[in-house]
Amino acid sequence: MSGVSVTKDAEDAVPTADLVVLSNVNKHFGALHVLQDIDLTIARGEVVVVIGPSGSGKSTLCRTINRLETVDSGSITIDGKPLPHEGKELARLRADVGMVFQSFNLFAHKTVLENVTLGQIKVRKADKKAAETKARALLDRVGVAAQADKYPAQLSGGQQQRVAIARALAMDPKVMLFDEPTSALDPEMINEVLEVMQQLARDGMTMVVVTHEMGFARSAANRVVFMADGKIVEEATPEEFFSNPRSDRAKDFLSKIL
Ligand code: ADP
Ligand code: MG
């Protein structure tokens, strides 16, 4: 790394330690105050697991970071820059912020390989050959290289979800958001997806993971964020959180799932 320059403009600013910063974020759905004064800072390379009861606002939180949802007030910055509102800038932001959903959301009429090359070509302006080389390497990394020429419906759920991870990684995201990535999977396929995520965490990817997989939280998370009723109720290391939750809401939640 070269030295820090304070005179450069925002475009080529040196990387900030804090990659994702939400400050005093509020969001309503009609009368429902779904995100309430959310302050959350995610450092580069940090793995944050978000847990909490259904309806507490976890998915909405993820979606605001990717600007799939707008916010009513407060600010969100990625790598020191506010979220763009529209156009090419927004497409680039979406590529910088990889997202993996519960439902795999692959393009059904494209092959696995095409699913992983498309964004590289359209958004990152990669040429086809380079995009395919990179896609094959990523498919190999997530263990589905042999499925490259198949269509999503020909793959198991676990394989499809690993393709979805490879597709997001193909954009060289700065941060990866996972919203209950294993919730729709048959039990025997959960681990193959969690293992890919574990490896990603070990490789230093900045990750926000909404999950009910407490084993993953214990082994991969730097920090657990517990949400209830649109608020961050508690933040702690996994060791602290699981052995000594402070709030009654967290104690109650943990007593139901552990
Ligand atoms: P979680 O992911 O923690 O289960 P969500 O963020 O999905 O919670 O939802 C939080 C609350 O916001 C829920 O009460 C949900 O019904 C409501 N909600 C989510 N999306 C919308 C929407 N597009 N319109 C209206 N209400 C919504
Ligand atoms: Mg959700």
From TrEMBL:
CDD domains: ABC_HisP_GlnQ
Key word Cytoplasm present: no
GO MF assignments: ATP binding
Listed name of the protein: Amino acid ABC transporter ATP-binding protein
Lipid bilayer topology: Peripheral membrane protein
Domain ABC transporter stretches: 20-254
Lineage: Bacteria, Bacillati, Actinomycetota, Actinomycetes, Kitasatosporales
PANTHER family xref list: AMINO ACID IMPORT ATP-BINDING PROTEIN (PTHR43166), GLUTAMATE_ASPARTATE IMPORT ATP-BINDING PROTEIN GLTL (PTHR43166:SF9)
Pfam families for this protein: ABC_tran
Main location: membrane
Subcellular localization: Cell membrane
